[in-house]
From TrEMBL:
Domain of life: Bacteria
The protein's name in its UniProt record: DUF2969 domain-containing protein
Entries under InterPro entries matching the protein: DUF2969
Organism of this sequence: Secundilactobacillus oryzae JCM 18671
Length: 73
């Protein structure tokens, strides 16, 4: 028997920290991770996990959502 797909609410919020724009990724009202620009790349960090580096912001956000879904799906 397979699971039914259920919709989840994903929000992207930005805020400034020391002149750097930080992108928070939220599922519902829960923050699952953040993305920070570093030089010409983006560092993504899932809450409680190590930092990963990506070329684009979209890749970083997509990776955070995939990792979150893998562990909490």
């Amino acid at each position: 028997m397979s699971k039914k797909n259920r919709p989840i609410e994903v929000n992207i919020e930005e805020h400034e920290d020391a002149g750097v724009t930080i992108t928070d990724v939220l599922v519902g009202q829960t923050k699952i991770g953040e993305v920070r620009p570093v030089e010409d790349r983006f560092d993504a960090k899932l809450e409680g996990e190590s930092t990963m580096r990506f070329k684009t912001l979209d890749e970083a956000v997509e990776s955070l959502l995939m990792k979150y879904n893998l562990h909490h799906g």
